[in-house]
């Protein structure tokens, strides 16, 4: 074929192809005459919508464009629509949960006995104390136990008593006995009994033929010599206590019970105690009695407990940790104690919702059981609560602006606080950055009354539509006051020299 004819033919075919492609492309994208709305697919976008920018250190101030924070040496952080959450909750992405070290725990119901943890000291059981006394006048010739708190056993010698008044009656008795006059002998024997001369001493006199003037006082029980009131050579009279012996197989434990918990204890309750120095050792006992009277210095009542001490390992004066438990063990809702944020006036728990949001819930707490704390109201069994990282979430999600608005959150009834007179208006000067129906965004100068530096923040209007003459870019003088929901403007006027 002639080359002059081939080149124009190729160019013609290429032009036709381009025209046909343009036609079909126009039909596909809706620019051709046959395109319809149904044929146009919805636009797709993978970009996340930014609601506003803020400084995480001052989360209450919002900006409508990125830039450097006026408060810190850092760039403003965007807040996206899919992370803003709904209502009073806050969306926490899995990545942020990992970065903040957030750990969750389940609200569970477990059986917990009503227990009271107290402190007390051991002492001798005074009902088991025995005394060593003499019924005659005499002199302590020898002490066999010379120091208090010495251990003795039943029948051990305590002291040897010399009784000179016993000599004459015994000599008379021995003389009459040798004379063979039975009636006078019996009379002399009765006289010795009246003088409290022991029968064993009389038997010794009969065997030896000599009067016995020394008598050994013995321990009536096994225990500790808790008192020793005499010394060798001292004179004793009838009824004088020579020594006191306290048993150690059972001890008393005096527990200090706070006055407010007095109604929670009763006699007969089982107790478990352990020494402060060795918590692994445990002893059991029961509450014997509640002593009448309140100690004014500590506002406590003393409860007397009985402890079994057959092994003798406990000694008086030990400091003991006490647990009083009731017979029944009701089931209670508990969460880890670290999950509760307490401000002194209220307690808040961060609850995980189903849409990855975290919501603050006001709760009423009870007693602490080890690492757990009882929840009286506000939560239900099976809910997930934040057990760690709460304060980082508080900073990240600006919970300080959420918590005051928890009027709908379940909370225990609290008495309405007394209304106080509103604070005086505060003054400031600034430039209007943005005007909305409900608020003005002002870049204000330092406010010395509140120790504020220069910053940009939102001020709420008293009512929607107030200050209609104020526009963005104006320099204004304004007054405001603080409420529970933030800062509310009182007046806004153009600053001196500013355009009206």
TrEMBL record:
<dbReference type="InterPro" id="IPR051909">
    <property type="entry name" value="MFP_Cation_Efflux"/>
</dbReference>
<dbReference type="Pfam" id="PF11604">
    <property type="entry name" value="CusF_Ec"/>
</dbReference>
<protein>
    <submittedName>
        <fullName>Cu(I)/Ag(I) efflux system membrane fusion protein</fullName>
    </submittedName>
</protein>
<dbReference type="InterPro" id="IPR042230">
    <property type="entry name" value="CusF_sf"/>
</dbReference>
<feature type="signal peptide">
    <location>
        <begin position="1"/>
        <end position="19"/>
    </location>
</feature>
<dbReference type="GO" id="GO:0060003">
    <property type="term" value="P:copper ion export"/>
</dbReference>
<dbReference type="InterPro" id="IPR058791">
    <property type="entry name" value="3HB_CusB"/>
</dbReference>
<feature type="domain" description="Heavy metal binding">
    <location>
        <begin position="52"/>
        <end position="79"/>
    </location>
</feature>
<dbReference type="Pfam" id="PF25954">
    <property type="entry name" value="Beta-barrel_RND_2"/>
</dbReference>
<feature type="domain" description="CzcB-like C-terminal circularly permuted SH3-like">
    <location>
        <begin position="334"/>
        <end position="393"/>
    </location>
</feature>
<comment type="similarity">
    <text>Belongs to the membrane fusion protein (MFP) (TC 8.A.1) family.</text>
</comment>
<dbReference type="InterPro" id="IPR006143">
    <property type="entry name" value="RND_pump_MFP"/>
</dbReference>
<feature type="domain" description="CusB-like barrel-sandwich hybrid">
    <location>
        <begin position="130"/>
        <end position="245"/>
    </location>
</feature>
<dbReference type="GO" id="GO:0022857">
    <property type="term" value="F:transmembrane transporter activity"/>
</dbReference>
<keyword id="KW-0813">Transport</keyword>
<dbReference type="InterPro" id="IPR058649">
    <property type="entry name" value="CzcB_C"/>
</dbReference>
<feature type="domain" description="CusB-like three alpha-helical bundle">
    <location>
        <begin position="165"/>
        <end position="213"/>
    </location>
</feature>
<dbReference type="InterPro" id="IPR058790">
    <property type="entry name" value="BSH_CusB"/>
</dbReference>
<dbReference type="InterPro" id="IPR045800">
    <property type="entry name" value="HMBD"/>
</dbReference>
<keyword id="KW-0732">Signal</keyword>
<dbReference type="GO" id="GO:0046914">
    <property type="term" value="F:transition metal ion binding"/>
</dbReference>
<dbReference type="GO" id="GO:0030288">
    <property type="term" value="C:outer membrane-bounded periplasmic space"/>
</dbReference>
<feature type="domain" description="CusB-like beta-barrel">
    <location>
        <begin position="250"/>
        <end position="327"/>
    </location>
</feature>
<dbReference type="GO" id="GO:0015679">
    <property type="term" value="P:plasma membrane copper ion transport"/>
</dbReference>
<dbReference type="InterPro" id="IPR058792">
    <property type="entry name" value="Beta-barrel_RND_2"/>
</dbReference>
<dbReference type="GO" id="GO:0016020">
    <property type="term" value="C:membrane"/>
</dbReference>
<dbReference type="Pfam" id="PF25869">
    <property type="entry name" value="3HB_CusB"/>
</dbReference>
<dbReference type="InterPro" id="IPR021647">
    <property type="entry name" value="CusF_Ec"/>
</dbReference>
<dbReference type="Pfam" id="PF25919">
    <property type="entry name" value="BSH_CusB"/>
</dbReference>
<dbReference type="Pfam" id="PF25975">
    <property type="entry name" value="CzcB_C"/>
</dbReference>
<dbReference type="Pfam" id="PF19335">
    <property type="entry name" value="HMBD"/>
</dbReference>
């Amino acid at each position: 074929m002639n080359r002059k004819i081939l080149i124009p033919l190729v160019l013609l075919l290429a032009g036709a192809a381009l025209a046909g492609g343009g036609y079909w492309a126009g039909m596909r994208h809706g620019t051709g005459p046959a395109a319809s709305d149904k044929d146009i697919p919805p636009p797709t976008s993978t970009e996340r919508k930014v609601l506003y920018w803020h400084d995480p250190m001052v989360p209450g101030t919002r900006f409508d464009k990125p830039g450097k924070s006026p408060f810190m040496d850092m760039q403003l952080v965007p807040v996206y629509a899919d992370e803003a959450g709904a209502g009073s909750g806050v969306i926490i992405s899995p990545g942020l949960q990992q970065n903040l070290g957030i750990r969750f725990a389940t609200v569970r119901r477990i059986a917990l006995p009503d227990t009271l943890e107290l402190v007390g000291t051991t002492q001798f059981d005074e009902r088991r104390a025995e005394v060593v006394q003499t019924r005659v006048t005499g002199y302590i010739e020898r002490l066999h136990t010379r120091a208090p708190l010495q251990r003795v056993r039943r029948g051990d010698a305590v002291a040897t008593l010399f009784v000179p008044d016993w000599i004459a009656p015994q000599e008379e008795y021995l003389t009459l006995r040798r004379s063979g006059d039975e009636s006078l002998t019996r009379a002399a024997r009765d006289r010795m009994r009246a003088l409290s001369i022991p029968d064993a001493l009389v038997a010794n006199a009969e065997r030896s033929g000599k009067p016995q003037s020394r008598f050994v006082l013995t321990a009536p029980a096994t225990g500790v010599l808790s008192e020793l009131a005499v010394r060798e050579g001292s004179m004793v009279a009838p009824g004088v206590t020579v020594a006191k012996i306290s048993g150690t197989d059972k001890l008393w434990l005096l527990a200090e019970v706070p006055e407010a918990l007095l109604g929670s204890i009763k006699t007969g309750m089982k107790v478990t105690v352990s020494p402060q120095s060795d918590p692994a050792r445990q002893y059991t006992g029961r509450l014997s009695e509640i002593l009448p009277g309140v100690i004014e210095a500590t506002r406590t009542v003393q409860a007397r407990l009985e402890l079994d001490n057959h092994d003798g390992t406990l000694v008086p004066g030990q400091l003991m940790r006490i647990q009083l438990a009731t017979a029944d063990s009701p089931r209670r809702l508990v969460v880890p104690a670290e999950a509760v944020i307490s401000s002194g006036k209220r307690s808040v728990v961060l609850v995980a919702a189903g849409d990855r949001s975290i919501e603050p819930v006001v709760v009423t707490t009870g007693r602490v059981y080890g690492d757990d704390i009882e929840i009286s109201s506000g939560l239900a069994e099976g809910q997930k609560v934040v057990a760690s990282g709460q304060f980082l979430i508080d900073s990240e999600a600006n919970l300080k602006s959420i918590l005051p608005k928890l009027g709908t959150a379940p909370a225990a009834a609290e008495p309405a606080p007394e209304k106080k007179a509103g604070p005086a208006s505060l003054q400031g000067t600034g430039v209007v950055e943005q005007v909305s129906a409900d608020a003005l965004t002002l870049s204000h100068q330092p406010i010395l009354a509140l120790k504020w530096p220069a910053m940009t923040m939102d001020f709420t209007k008293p009512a929607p539509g107030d200050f209609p003459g104020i526009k963005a870019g104006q320099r204004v003088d304004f007054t405001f006051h603080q409420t529970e929901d933030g800062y509310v403007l009182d007046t806004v006027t153009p600053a001196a020299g500013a355009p009206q």
